Amino acid sequence: MDMRPPPPATQTQGHLLIDDVVKVYDPEGAAVLAVDHCTLEIEPGEICMIVGPSGCGKTTLLNAVAGFHDITSGRILMDGEVLCSTDRPRSTPGPDRIVVFQNGALFPWKSNLENVIFGPVMQGKLGRREALDKGRAMMGDAGLSGVEHNYPGEVSSGMRRRVEIVRALMNDPKVLLLDEPYRALDSLTKSVMHEALLEIYYKNRVTIFFITHDLEEAIFLGHRVAIMTTRPCKPKKILTVDIPHPRDYSVLTSKRFRELIEETNDAVHEEALKAFQAGEKEG
Amino acid sequence: MAATLPVVAEDDAIAVLREATPFGEASPVVLSRIAALARPARYAAGERIYTAGDAADDIFIVASGRADHVFEPEVGAREPLKRVTRGGVFGWAGLLLGQTRRLATVTAVEPTEVLRIDTEALVALLESQPQEGGQVMARFAAMIRREFAVPELLAQVRRLSGPLTEEMSSLSLTMYRLSLWLKSPRPYLMLIGFALFLGIWYLAVEVWKLPRFREMPGLTTVVKEWFSPSPTYGLSLYTEEYYKHIVVSVWRVTQAFFLATVLGVTFGLLLGWSQRFREYVFPVFEMLRPIPILAWVPLAIVMFIATESAVIYLAFLASFYATALNTMLGVQSIDESYIRAASCLGASQKQVFRHVILPGALPFIFTGLQISIGVSWFSLVAAEMVSGQYGLGYVINTSYVMVRYPTIIIGMATLGLVGYTTSALVRLAGDYLMEWRVRELALAER
Lengths: 283, 446
Fold this sequence. Notes:
The complex is a heterodimer of chains A (283) and B (446). Chain A is an alpha/beta fold.
């Protein structure tokens, strides 16, 4: 299996190493093995897509990186610095690794712009004035001018996702952790969002750890696609997507894209089937 | 051959619009209004639909067939030729800033059916629906940039103008909702409801003289007494006494409610925030809560020497439970991901509390305050009936003892009016503090 990451991008920050991580839920009782000796290395500035069926344990991995969950053993390093290990099972959440949540977590009681400036203002990195200026500029860059003073509940779900990504990027994170962010969107909006994400990525080249169960999405966006086994979760197959960036929607109809889908479809389907059968047994 | 094509039907128009990127997320109401502007048209294969440089009047949405859309070279599109099929939108140049002329030449390749919408009529419609209109325009801009690969510099859509597109102030929003309310049947149904209630009272007591209501004062008796400058039983709108009772009751409720809010919200936030605190305190709280307020009366009188504070204490107690319990539920209802997001973004515990927990719990807190003001009146009147010298509860009780039946009804009706006013004030305060929620609900047309 090819575990080597692709040649590094221009970024020097945002190297992520998941090293032999194990996560057991409820070790004293039911002892559910969610992640099993998982090793994955992500290069600075890489878009790494994690694909697996719902409930396979990929979110557990993301939560461990973000610092929402303990790990049972192994370690996770970012730029050579230990985030968590067997001795110190939970990393501290911080603005260097920002999560964009599955159902969106913009604060509905703050306007879009207030949401965007939340990070730097809370950390005291920027004054309110400077933060507002930077926030407005970044929202403008992401095609969000005009909705600064609207509340998140007033704009479309696609826009909310973009605001949330801008809110994350305001902190100059080293890694962006995306947990199926486009799951709830209709396919039309989704396609617009993919290009918008790439557009933002080409400006920032931030490392992206992107969880999804949509293989097309994974191959369209990612430098590499890690297909995970279902419960316990670990890489089953790692695909290097040799379609050059920058990409746009014409990639979807290209021959190479279809070939890559064909190459990986079986592996994904196999895991989906396993997950389904496991679910049936539990039910 | 164009004539053999079926004409686009009304319902189809909506279906076609829904497939078009700009209208994909528009609500059914807006879609049908846009569909009403659409005029079907047909073009034969090879027919020129418009030529670059023509006046940019209509926007076209393809319903069937195919058309070639060729940009003028000076537009600088990455791909000058674009083939447009069902759901495709062209002729949008009129929506761009400062554009009045067509930027491309469009020719039907096959027999093609389209919907034509006048640009200015569409803009006017979108301006009347500022929130959704803004979204449609934003989607137009995205489509022009992405699907037509027009450079960003050119693809700037017009800004919708109109009073409501600017930041909607709370006042204008309230006025807008008020005008909607007056246009709806609701206020009139409400008036009918009142008329029915008063009518049945009048008929049952004064016309049919039903046996059960023999001792009841009739509607006309009560109204006459209430509005009489020299009331038979000493209490009406013209007597100073009447207002003194109201003021005393309102002042007691205000104190009780204020105290209950300050203590109840604090206590509830602590209960919801700290598991430890909850484990100590909640069981006791849950055991005390079901004890009816009336059961506290003797103890309250023993505890507080002055009757005034005993009455306030009783009104406070019921309010406090409602507020504290709802605040706690409010804190617990907050989605975990908000707290996680805040900690990701580098907020400290204190900041999470101030910026996430407090505003997140606010909707529940205000539900609690609505209940709280109600039960506060309830227990106040009960307490005033037992002890005290003034207040509306006292009026009702003494009028009963002294057989002044119309005055009982005056007291009751006054309580209803004053109670309603206070809870409306609480609701207004909530709307003011939770503008985000008011706007969300307004968008959902609730």
